[in-house]
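Q: How would the C-alpha coordinates look for this protein?
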Amino acid sequence: MIVEHAVCVPGRKFTLSTSRSHTSTSRFTSVLSAGAFALVAIAATGGLSASAVAQPVSPARTSAAANATSNAAFLLSSQKAFTVQGAAAATTTAFSLGWKQEIAWQMMHVRFHWRSRYQFRYLNRLWIRESGWNVHATNPYSGAYGIPQAVPGSKMASAGSNWQNSARTQIRWGLGYIKARYGTPHRAWNHECAYGWY
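A: Here is the predicted structure in C-alpha coordinate form.
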Protein backbone atom coordinates (compact mmCIF):
# COMPACT_ATOMS: atom_id res chain seq x y z
CA MET A 1 0.00 0.00 0.00
CA ILE A 2 1.34 3.41 -0.92
CA VAL A 3 1.71 5.88 1.94
CA GLU A 4 1.33 9.53 1.05
CA HIS A 5 3.81 12.10 2.43
CA ALA A 6 2.55 15.29 0.78
CA VAL A 7 3.36 18.58 2.47
CA CYS A 8 3.07 21.00 -0.42
CA VAL A 9 -0.51 22.01 -1.30
CA PRO A 10 -1.07 21.98 -5.08
CA GLY A 11 -2.49 25.08 -6.74
CA ARG A 12 -3.43 25.70 -10.36
CA LYS A 13 -0.91 27.57 -12.50
CA PHE A 14 -2.40 27.05 -15.95
CA THR A 15 -5.36 27.70 -18.24
CA LEU A 16 -7.61 24.70 -18.81
CA SER A 17 -8.64 23.52 -22.24
CA THR A 18 -10.59 20.42 -23.24
CA SER A 19 -8.78 17.16 -23.92
CA ARG A 20 -9.68 13.52 -24.45
CA SER A 21 -9.74 11.14 -21.53
CA HIS A 22 -9.33 7.39 -21.47
CA THR A 23 -8.74 5.11 -18.54
CA SER A 24 -6.64 2.07 -17.95
CA THR A 25 -5.83 0.19 -14.81
CA SER A 26 -2.88 -0.23 -12.53
CA ARG A 27 -2.68 -2.62 -9.62
CA PHE A 28 -2.84 -1.60 -5.97
CA THR A 29 -3.85 -3.52 -2.83
CA SER A 30 -6.41 -2.43 -0.27
CA VAL A 31 -7.36 -4.11 3.01
CA LEU A 32 -10.85 -5.49 3.55
CA SER A 33 -13.10 -3.99 6.19
CA ALA A 34 -13.66 -5.96 9.40
CA GLY A 35 -17.15 -6.99 8.28
CA ALA A 36 -15.94 -8.26 4.92
CA PHE A 37 -13.07 -10.08 6.64
CA ALA A 38 -15.56 -11.87 8.90
CA LEU A 39 -17.63 -12.97 5.90
CA VAL A 40 -14.53 -14.24 4.10
CA ALA A 41 -13.40 -16.07 7.25
CA ILE A 42 -16.78 -17.81 7.56
CA ALA A 43 -16.72 -18.81 3.90
CA ALA A 44 -13.06 -19.88 4.01
CA THR A 45 -13.60 -22.16 7.03
CA GLY A 46 -16.74 -23.67 5.57
CA GLY A 47 -19.15 -22.16 8.07
CA LEU A 48 -19.40 -21.87 11.83
CA SER A 49 -16.83 -23.27 14.26
CA ALA A 50 -17.39 -26.64 15.99
CA SER A 51 -17.95 -24.99 19.39
CA ALA A 52 -20.61 -22.70 17.92
CA VAL A 53 -22.39 -25.65 16.30
CA ALA A 54 -22.28 -27.72 19.52
CA GLN A 55 -24.20 -25.08 21.47
CA PRO A 56 -28.00 -24.94 21.21
CA VAL A 57 -29.11 -22.14 18.91
CA SER A 58 -32.59 -20.91 18.11
CA PRO A 59 -33.95 -21.76 14.62
CA ALA A 60 -34.09 -18.06 13.71
CA ARG A 61 -30.39 -17.56 14.56
CA THR A 62 -29.46 -20.79 12.73
CA SER A 63 -31.28 -19.57 9.64
CA ALA A 64 -29.54 -16.17 9.83
CA ALA A 65 -26.14 -17.82 10.24
CA ALA A 66 -26.82 -20.14 7.27
CA ASN A 67 -27.85 -17.17 5.14
CA ALA A 68 -24.70 -15.26 6.16
CA THR A 69 -22.56 -18.29 5.32
CA SER A 70 -24.18 -18.81 1.94
CA ASN A 71 -23.94 -15.09 1.17
CA ALA A 72 -20.27 -15.09 2.12
CA ALA A 73 -19.63 -18.18 -0.02
CA PHE A 74 -21.37 -16.49 -2.97
CA LEU A 75 -19.33 -13.32 -2.41
CA LEU A 76 -16.13 -15.34 -2.28
CA SER A 77 -16.91 -17.30 -5.43
CA SER A 78 -18.02 -14.23 -7.37
CA GLN A 79 -15.04 -12.07 -6.39
CA LYS A 80 -12.01 -13.83 -7.85
CA ALA A 81 -9.70 -11.14 -6.47
CA PHE A 82 -10.00 -12.27 -2.82
CA THR A 83 -6.90 -13.83 -1.34
CA VAL A 84 -6.32 -14.94 2.22
CA GLN A 85 -2.74 -14.52 3.46
CA GLY A 86 -2.11 -15.91 6.94
CA ALA A 87 -4.26 -14.04 9.48
CA ALA A 88 -5.08 -11.16 7.14
CA ALA A 89 -7.41 -11.08 4.17
CA ALA A 90 -6.71 -8.70 1.30
CA THR A 91 -8.28 -7.92 -2.02
CA THR A 92 -6.63 -6.62 -5.15
CA THR A 93 -8.66 -3.81 -6.65
CA ALA A 94 -8.17 -1.82 -9.82
CA PHE A 95 -7.10 1.77 -9.21
CA SER A 96 -7.99 3.76 -12.29
CA LEU A 97 -5.29 5.92 -13.85
CA GLY A 98 -5.85 8.17 -16.82
CA TRP A 99 -4.22 7.01 -20.05
CA LYS A 100 -1.61 9.79 -19.81
CA GLN A 101 -0.65 8.76 -16.30
CA GLU A 102 -0.38 5.14 -17.45
CA ILE A 103 2.04 6.22 -20.22
CA ALA A 104 4.14 8.07 -17.65
CA TRP A 105 4.09 5.12 -15.22
CA GLN A 106 5.41 2.74 -17.90
CA MET A 107 7.94 5.23 -19.29
CA MET A 108 9.34 5.98 -15.85
CA HIS A 109 10.11 2.32 -15.34
CA VAL A 110 11.21 1.24 -18.81
CA ARG A 111 13.01 4.30 -20.16
CA PHE A 112 14.22 6.10 -17.03
CA HIS A 113 14.65 3.13 -14.65
CA TRP A 114 12.87 4.80 -11.75
CA ARG A 115 10.81 2.79 -9.28
CA SER A 116 7.40 3.88 -10.58
CA ARG A 117 5.58 2.65 -7.49
CA TYR A 118 7.54 5.15 -5.40
CA GLN A 119 8.35 8.00 -7.83
CA PHE A 120 5.01 8.26 -9.66
CA ARG A 121 3.21 9.86 -6.70
CA TYR A 122 5.60 12.83 -6.86
CA LEU A 123 5.38 13.16 -10.63
CA ASN A 124 1.59 13.04 -10.41
CA ARG A 125 1.48 15.80 -7.78
CA LEU A 126 3.93 17.88 -9.77
CA TRP A 127 2.06 17.70 -13.05
CA ILE A 128 -1.37 18.05 -11.46
CA ARG A 129 -0.13 21.32 -9.99
CA GLU A 130 1.65 22.48 -13.15
CA SER A 131 -0.88 21.53 -15.83
CA GLY A 132 -3.51 19.11 -14.57
CA TRP A 133 -2.00 16.66 -17.14
CA ASN A 134 -3.55 18.84 -19.87
CA VAL A 135 -1.66 18.61 -23.17
CA HIS A 136 -2.77 22.13 -24.14
CA ALA A 137 -2.35 23.81 -20.73
CA THR A 138 -0.86 27.27 -21.21
CA ASN A 139 0.49 29.77 -18.71
CA PRO A 140 -0.31 33.20 -20.18
CA TYR A 141 2.38 34.89 -18.07
CA SER A 142 5.40 32.66 -18.65
CA GLY A 143 4.42 31.04 -21.94
CA ALA A 144 4.81 27.57 -20.38
CA TYR A 145 3.02 24.90 -22.38
CA GLY A 146 1.80 21.33 -22.11
CA ILE A 147 1.85 18.67 -19.42
CA PRO A 148 5.39 19.46 -18.17
CA GLN A 149 4.93 23.23 -18.70
CA ALA A 150 8.03 23.66 -20.86
CA VAL A 151 9.21 27.27 -21.33
CA PRO A 152 8.99 27.85 -24.22
CA GLY A 153 6.85 24.92 -25.36
CA SER A 154 8.89 24.55 -28.54
CA LYS A 155 11.69 23.01 -26.42
CA MET A 156 9.66 19.80 -26.55
CA ALA A 157 10.33 19.52 -30.29
CA SER A 158 13.54 17.73 -29.29
CA ALA A 159 11.32 14.81 -28.21
CA GLY A 160 9.13 14.84 -31.32
CA SER A 161 7.65 17.09 -33.97
CA ASN A 162 4.13 16.45 -32.65
CA TRP A 163 4.92 18.07 -29.29
CA GLN A 164 1.96 20.49 -29.41
CA ASN A 165 -0.68 17.72 -29.33
CA SER A 166 1.02 14.51 -28.23
CA ALA A 167 0.86 13.54 -24.56
CA ARG A 168 3.47 10.81 -25.13
CA THR A 169 5.97 13.28 -26.61
CA GLN A 170 5.39 15.80 -23.84
CA ILE A 171 5.72 13.16 -21.13
CA ARG A 172 8.95 11.82 -22.67
CA TRP A 173 10.42 15.32 -22.81
CA GLY A 174 9.22 16.17 -19.29
CA LEU A 175 10.70 13.03 -17.75
CA GLY A 176 13.98 13.67 -19.56
CA TYR A 177 14.04 17.22 -18.21
CA ILE A 178 13.41 16.00 -14.66
CA LYS A 179 16.12 13.34 -14.96
CA ALA A 180 18.71 15.83 -16.28
CA ARG A 181 17.93 18.64 -13.84
CA TYR A 182 16.78 16.94 -10.62
CA GLY A 183 17.54 13.24 -10.95
CA THR A 184 14.09 12.07 -9.78
CA PRO A 185 10.48 13.27 -9.65
CA HIS A 186 10.73 13.32 -5.84
CA ARG A 187 13.50 15.94 -5.98
CA ALA A 188 11.62 17.91 -8.63
CA TRP A 189 8.54 17.93 -6.38
CA ASN A 190 10.61 19.12 -3.41
CA HIS A 191 11.91 22.00 -5.54
CA GLU A 192 8.37 22.83 -6.65
CA CYS A 193 7.24 22.96 -3.03
CA ALA A 194 10.15 25.17 -2.01
CA TYR A 195 10.15 27.63 -4.92
CA GLY A 196 6.82 27.23 -6.74
CA TRP A 197 8.41 26.02 -9.99
CA TYR A 198 10.68 23.25 -11.19
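Residues 23 and 98 are 5 Å apart (CA to CA).

The helical segments are 34-45, 50-54, 59-78, 99-110, 116-130, 167-181, 185-195.

Upvote if useful.
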